[in-house]
Amino acid sequence: MMEAKLLLPDVEEENGAPFWAGAARDELLVQACGACGNWRFPPRPMCPHCRSVETKWERASGNAKVWGFVVPHPPLLPAYAELAPYNVIVVELDEDPTIRMVGNLLASPDGALNEIDPSTIEIGEPVRVVFQKVDDVTLPRWVRA
Amino acid sequence: MAKAFLQDKVAIAGIGQTSFGKGIEDSELSLGCQAISMALDECGIAPSEVDGTASFTMELNREVDIARNVGFGDVTFFSQVGYGGGAGCGTILHAAMAVATGQCRVAVAWRARKRAAKASRPWSQVPARLDDHWMWSRPFGLLRPVDEVAMLTRRYMHEYGATRDHLANVAIAFRKHANRNPNATMREKTLSREQYMEARWISEPLCLFDNCLETDGALAAVLVPAERAKDLPTKPVYVHSAAQGIPPQHQTMINYFNEDPLLGPSWAAAGQLWGGSEFKPDDVKVAQIYDAFSPLVPLSLEGYGFCGRGEGAEFTNDGALEWPNGRLPTNTAGGGMSEAYVHGFNLVLEGVRQMRGTSTSQVENADSCLVTSGEGVPTSALLLRN
Q1: Which of A73, A100, A139 sits opposite B256 (nearest CB)?
Q2: What is the pLDDT along chain B (386 residues), one digit of tens a residue?
Q3: Would residue B341 show up in a list of annotated catalytic residues for this protein?
Q4: Which of B15, B93, B151, B283 could staple B279 via S-S, CB 3.0–4.6 A?
Q5: Distance (Å, rounded) from C-alpha B6 to C-alpha B340?
Q6: What topology does CATH give the domain B10-118+213-385?
Q7: Reduced to 3 states, what is the DSSP secondary structure of residue B298?
């Protein structure tokens, strides 16, 4: 399957493992400080607000807004060149707009990266998370809310 | 106010560079040694006197190999600066600090690179699984530096009304300067606004001409105490001020995770740079601004205080970046977009030429020159004076 050639995360990397395990259960998890409760992303060992190394994982609603987007064209790695032009978006979560994640805007939960007409994407438009299994990894992506 | 410790204590006395091109046969080691050798010969310093070095962590030539080839003596200071294109001015800063504090007496800083070969581009090398920070962006197809900067550009356009016309101002200005520079890769090729607008996309909203070149080549600079520089055959160019910068919560070019991603590393470096300087932005008549991608120029103009926040795009209008009549002729040898892309080190050498009065687009009466390294990554900057 072509998608197996896409770049994929090491889901066992120690800081991010709970995020990817959550995604595999269709849950968007955000790392939170075990002491002061602030969310942070990407996950890391120490809270920059209070320096606690206690962490917990909290489930986000999965509601977000488009913060920015690009449309890559070749030259690209082969698996991505086959899809180009496709969109990549950055979303900001409704619960905390400084928590931003890179993803893709899809026409449907099982859609491809290149189905939405990029000229219709607008900064600020509401989206919600969906989960796509690629090989043995589940990636959070986004559809219009 | 007390004079900053580093101010004018150290001078760049010699510069050297190989030719720029694609498919140059010489190895990176050979190119690096040639550039350093030329820089030493220019100022009449023997290789055996070199006792300090500074380069990039991404530099593939180790200090020991350079030293064994060029024939250095006892080297008592050697430093490498990280973060790719953010390192260039930092190597001069490290070398200057080492000379100013007496850790060494003759320092060389250099960058040698064979980037024109496609296989050499860092993003083209694919690991089995991503276990570093790129795991949060690359799986989604945000693969290359241009994609990462295009995302910030889209947001910049959205927040401040910047347009492709502003980015074209940058690309066209630098190309005009390259057309006057016989050493520039693009010396023969002009660039019109129409060509810019019709160019193929690389990562929307950035097109081909928003990107730097891919170049083989090497450049080097020799730094000595100011007192010694006065006795050498070349005109001394003083390191007036220098700084590095990482802002809070910064995450290299995928800088989407902090409170305000458009407040990049130049903002962090600027306070230290101007704090150690007798010049202020209004006094500076010429600049060399890191231009791996065109939008880094307006972002840097804002960060270093040449205009207000969000005004960098507008600043580029009316030929402001163009020699000879612009408010701030910038990248007067053509920069990374039209002279050569050697991780921004060519910007340092053009800054030196402006202060010597030997640029092919010489700004009259310029007595200081800003040189910056990569905005968007942990960065560095210099203020040179003559």
Answers
A1: A100
A2: 678 999 999 999 999 999 999 999 999 999 999 999 999 999 999 999 999 999 999 999 999 999 999 999 999 999 999 999 999 999 999 999 999 999 999 999 999 999 866 666 666 666 679 999 999 999 999 999 999 999 999 999 999 999 999 999 999 999 999 999 999 999 999 999 999 999 999 999 999 999 999 999 999 999 999 999 999 999 999 999 999 999 999 988 888 999 999 999 999 999 999 999 999 999 999 999 999 999 999 999 999 999 999 999 999 999 999 999 999 999 999 999 999 999 999 999 999 999 999 999 999 999 999 999 999 999 999 999 99
A3: yes
A4: B283
A5: 30
A6: Peroxisomal Thiolase; Chain A, domain 1 (3.40.47)
A7: helix
The beta strand positions in chain A, using DSSP E, are 29-33, 39-40, 55-59, 63-72, 88-93, 100-103, 105-106, 126-134, 137-144
User: Contact B130/A68, CB-based, under 8 Å?
Assistant: no
**Minimal CA separation from A59 to chain B, in Å:** 18
Q: Parallel, antiparallel, or unpaired for β B216-225 and B10-17?
A: antiparallel
Q: Is the pTM of the predicted complex or chain greater than 0.90?
A: yes
CB count, 10 Å around CB of B324?
11
Q: Where are the domains of chain A?
A: 10-59, 61-145
**Residue B203 · residue B178 · CB < 8 Å:** no
| Interchain pair A71, B204: CB under 8 A | yes
d(CA B63, CA B55): 9
Q: Say how many CA atoms lie within 13 Å of B41 toward its Cβ.
A: 9
Cβ of residue B147 closer than 8 Å to a chain A Cβ: yes
Domain boundaries, chain B: 10-118+213-385
Size of interface A-B (CB pairs under 8 A): 114
In chain A, which residues have their Cβ closer than 8 Å to the Cβ of B293? none
* CATH architecture of the region A61-145: Beta Barrel (2.40)
**From residue B347, how far is each of A10, B173, B296, B377 by CA, in Å?**
38, 15, 14, 17
Measured in degrees and rounded to the nearest 5, phi and psi for residue B146 equal: -65, -35
Q: How many CA atoms lie within 13 A of A96 on its CB side?
A: 18
Residues 61 through 120 of chain B touching chain A, CB cutoff 8 Å: 118
Q: How is residue B187 written in tokens?
A: 């010396």
